[in-house]
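Hello Y.,

Per our agreement to keep a running log of every chain we model this quarter, I'm adding this entry. I've kept the format consistent with earlier entries: sequence first, then predicted structure.
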Amino acid sequence: MLNNVILVGRITDTPRIHDLEDGTKVCNITLAVTKPFKNQTTGEYGVDFIPISLWQGSAAITQRWCEKGDIVGIKGRISTRVSDVKGVNVHTLEVIGERIVFISLKSNQEQVSEDVEDEDINE
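Predicted structure for the entry above:
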């Protein structure tokens, strides 16, 4: 079986890390990804807003270097879960980011590439 996804898009909000009770770090971002075709009515490209969860080292690096509007590439896998909301099963789909690539950052890119190479993303 194969569950792989590659996305390139803009981060829609400033990344924030959340520490779970067991000490695990997670950074939830939304990636705005332009659709590859134009809307026939408006003549404009649409956008998909895709939720992505980054964990541990990837979460820390993303929160440290990325801002709203930065363009990144994400390699990951699709994950689903079911939650009970007032007696109704709600199905949720998200991407679990396994790797992030900085394509266009607003911050100092030379410093980013040097520091990212030195960091241990498997913390």
